[in-house]
Amino acid sequence: MRRYWIQRHGWRSRWPQAATAPHSQQSSSQAKTPASRAVGSGRWAGAFTLVELLVVVGIIALLVTILMPALGRALELARKTICQTQLHTMGRAWTIYFQNYNNMTPQMHNSGWENMDCLARFTYMIYCGNPMHTVHKPDYVNAGVLYKEKLVGDGKVYVCPTIKRNNGGVWFDNLPRRVTAGGRAIGPSTKGGGWWPVNRRMGSYMTYMRRRMNYYDDPSLSYFEYYIRPPKYERPNAHIMLYYTGVGAVKRPGDFSWMADRFDWPGWALLSHVPGVNVLYLDGHVRYWQDPTWDEKTGTGKVLYDNGLSPNWNVPRDNWYIDDIWMIIDGYHSPPVGQGR
Is 79 a member of any domain? Predict the structure, then answer.
């Protein structure tokens, strides 16, 4: 047959395959059926069983449990670094401010010069708008003047990211809500920091605090009620109040702590970088200071946490205690807090 085809059509013509196609297709189909079954059977045989899936999920959960503490520490390290950067930014701004104002410090709490230094606890205000606490008109005070003078450009620099995270919500949101028990206020605010950029009704607060005095060894000087407003020459502590002496009176700026995360009440210190705080020194450098009495087993320390500071603002003894912590940070005094009293 093939020979006949070649003789009739020539040897270059292709031999028709149609006659053999059904047989070829049938053979191909018959040949592939076992292989297809084999492939399908292998696919189902290679799937995970329920036990194997549970084992994988358990391993992943174990790895997450192991890695979460390390991840938490890494995130806190990042927040602490941001906090240090913000303090460093304010340190540069303070340097310019002191140059512009002959080394004098701004008012710390009240807008009237007579009320400048008030109590040691009220060193976290950046704007005072309460008519009861102002002599002239509401205005920026303390570190808030850096924003007013355009030496810092963003209110975020006043808020430590760790305290903001542990405090919950946004910082400059509403009037602060005091810690209460049975309707009675027992402690300072742990929520909110006033409005931003300013709250013209009450005030705005930062998560940092500032030092008010130079070195001294007479704790009786801290008991003075500053809101009595005597003339400067009648103040027995004028020689140690930075508002009167200026920062030029500080002999060693590199060893003089100027600002830090708030420790005016242990509740605030516990919201910060436990077991310590970031500290800005007068020469502009920043470092982390750890409570030297910190006990890892008990989770407390005698300087920042278990120091006897009252949650109430009007305890005269606390003036000396807070001033003493600044001097312990600088190595001028030794723990425990208030032993010079």
Answer: no
CA atoms within 13 A on the CB side of 247: 27
Give the integer Cα–Cα distance in Å for 110 and 108: 6
Position 306 pLDDT exceeds 60:
yes
Tokens of 2: 């093939």
Range of the domain at 177: 84-329
- Total domains in the chain come to 1
Cα–Cα distance for residue pair 279/330, rounded to 1 Å? 10
Backbone angles phi, psi at 33, to 5 degrees: -60, -45
Residue 300 is given by DSSP the state B
Cis geometry, peptide bond prior to residue 275 (ω within 30 degrees of 0): yes
Residue 156 to residue 152: CA distance in whole angstroms? 10
Q: Is the pLDDT at 311 greater than 90, yes or no?
A: no
- The CA distance from 119 to 223, in Å, is 9
Lowest mean pLDDT, pick from 23-37, 166-180, 304-318: 23-37
**pLDDT beyond 90 at 245:** no
Q: Is 1 part of any domain? A: no
